[in-house]
Amino acid sequence: MTRVSHAAAIIVLVGALGTGFAQQGELKQQRPAKQGEKPQVLEVEPPEEDEAAKPKEYAFNPLQAEKETRIGNFYWKKKSYKAAALRYEEATKWNPGDAEAWFRLGEAREKLKQDAEARAAFEQFLDLAQDDKRSADVKKRVAKLPPPKKES
Question: Is the pTM above the cut of 0.70?
Answer without folding.
Answer: no
